[in-house]
TrEMBL record:
Protein name: 4,5-DOPA dioxygenase extradiol
Alphabetic keyword roster: Dioxygenase, Metal-binding, Oxidoreductase, Zinc
Names of required cofactors: Zn(2+)
Molecular functions per Gene Ontology: ferrous iron binding; oxidoreductase activity, acting on single donors with incorporation of molecular oxygen, incorporation of two atoms of oxygen; zinc ion binding
CDD domains for this protein: 45_DOPA_Dioxygenase
Boundaries of every Extradiol ring-cleavage dioxygenase class III enzyme subunit B domain copy: 47-239
Keyword Zinc: yes
Pfam families referenced in this protein's UniProt entry, alphabetically: LigB
Family: Belongs to the DODA-type extradiol aromatic ring-opening dioxygenase family.
Species of the source: Filimonas lacunae
């Protein structure tokens, strides 16, 4: 009987992600993703990502990507190793167990990293030395469900886990494709991006969850919610009085590549 009790206790201990350290709260990153080429391009945008990632030393990175969408359930990677050609990297089953303990997530052990993850990770952590995992977005659930999921993930920040939301504030590929000869942003794209920035500065997060009230501008900027929701996850993780720093701002055609950091890091940019 004592041996059975010991084994039960060991199982519970391992399920808590015991190999992950207890730390001060790590920051949260939101990044507007781009650069899907096989060879990473060094641009002002990707240089910003490298500066963001270079300022922190996480034990694991959890990505919430616009390109892992599920219907009816939330999943987390349990992969010990990813074979993704663009970014082969070790997985983090320990961090995945923490996620599963925090939220009602199911295990997924076969899926490789999507381009919303590897396109930013290869700049945030270019040596691929930090273990990675992903959390899917259940598109059947309402926005308040995603807010609650994010709040339940907040404890991971003190276990050395860097949480990264990868999406776009404005994401309209169809209308962007019509601007063949110009990178100039549509007026509605620039206006919606500026509106989001203003709401973040004012800490008016509830309005961001009701973005559709802007009407036609919102319809153009967020024709589908998949790229918008990762930003909401990040903002839901923001604690009272935490700083929010915009690390990059650019709107091209019908796409916003705004990036920001929540929480302290050794970086010097203008604060929101």
């Amino acid at each position: 009987m004592p041996l059975l009790q010991f084994n039960k206790g060991l199982t519970q201990w391992l399920a808590t992600g015991a190999s992950l350290p207890y730390t001060d709260a790590l920051p949260v990153f939101f990044v507007g993703h781009q650069d899907f080429s096989r060879t990473p391009h060094i641009t002002p945008f990707t240089s910003n990502l490298r500066a963001m990632g270079g300022a922190v030393k996480p034990a694991a990175i959890l990505v919430i990507s616009a390109h892992w969408l599920t219907m009816g359930d939330t999943y987390v990677n349990m992969n010990p190793q990813f074979k993704t050609v663009e970014y082969p990297v070790t997985g983090s089953p320990d961090a995945a167990r923490l996620v599963m303990n925090a939220v009602d997530a199911k295990e997924e052990s076969e899926r490789e990293l999507d381009h919303g993850a590897w396109s930013v990770l290869r700049h945030l952590s270019p040596d691929a030395a930090v273990p990675v995992l992903e959390l899917s977005i259940d598109m059947e659930k309402p926005l308040d469900y995603h807010y609650n999921i994010a709040r339940q993930l907040s404890s991971l920040r003190k276990r050395g886990v860097l949480i990264v939301g990868s999406g776009n504030v404005v994401h309209n590929l169809e209308l962007s494709a019509l601007k063949v000869w110009s990178r100039k942003p549509y007026e509605w794209a620039a206006e919606f991006d500026a509106w989001v920035k203003g709401r973040i500065i004012d800490r008016d997060i509830s309005s961001l969850f009701q973005y559709y009230r802007l009407g036609k501008i919102a319809d153009y900027a967020v024709p589908t919610m998949d790229h918008y929701i990762p930003m909401l996850y990040c903002l839901a993780l923001c604690e009272k009085n935490e700083e929010i720093v915009f690390t990059y701002e650019e709107v091209i055609k019908g796409m916003s590549f705004r990036c920001f950091r929540i929480g302290a890091a050794t970086m010097s940019e203008s604060k929101a």
